[in-house]
Design goal:
Blueprint (H helix, E strand, L loop, with lengths): L10 H19 L5 E8 L5 E10 L2 E9 L8 H15 L4 E6 L2 H9 L3 E10 L2 E9 L5
Parallel strand pairs: 3-4
Antiparallel strand pairs: 1-2, 2-3, 4-6, 5-6
Length: 141
């Protein structure tokens, strides 16, 4: 056997580890229907103005990233982007949506858009609280 640590662990090995853990978890849960989901908006020049991405799985939308170009923040573009992503998830049969953020302002925006904070960890990263938020469209049994 040959051990490696830190920077000596290749990017391919790191990716294989991630994929192995995810695959194992999905095999335990059975019935995974994971699919990537995304939406984006560009200006007439093709510059990305906002976007969101994540996955749908087990009748849930998992939001990984929601981003708005700094010059366009405060215009409602983030909320519009999120609503479009949610509409896609609803068409896929999702019952709820889960988001996490380290930013208090972002958590407040999610709450304004109908999400409820179900957990938070203070000082998750020094000076930042990790917020876990859930929006329920149809209750689970």
């Amino acid at each position: 056997m040959r051990w490696s640590s830190d920077e000596a662990v290749s990017a391919a090995d790191l990716q294989a580890l991630r994929e192995g853990v995810i695959l194992h978890g999905r095999q335990q849960a059975q019935g995974s229907d994971a699919r990537d989901i995304a939406c984006a908006v560009h200006d007439e020049d093709g510059t990305l103005l906002a976007g969101a991405c994540g996955r749908t799985e087990f009748e849930r939308l998992y939001i990984d990233y929601l981003w708005v170009h700094p010059d366009r923040r405060g215009e409602g573009l983030g909320g519009d982007t999120l609503r479009r992503l949610e509409a896609q998830a609803l068409r896929r049969g999702c019952r709820d949506a889960l988001a996490e953020t380290l930013l208090d302002d972002a958590a407040a925006i999610y709450e304004h858009l109908g999400y409820a904070c179900i957990a938070h960890v203070h000082d998750f990263v020094p000076g930042f609280t990790r917020h876990t938020l859930l929006k329920v469209w149809r209750a689970r049994d």
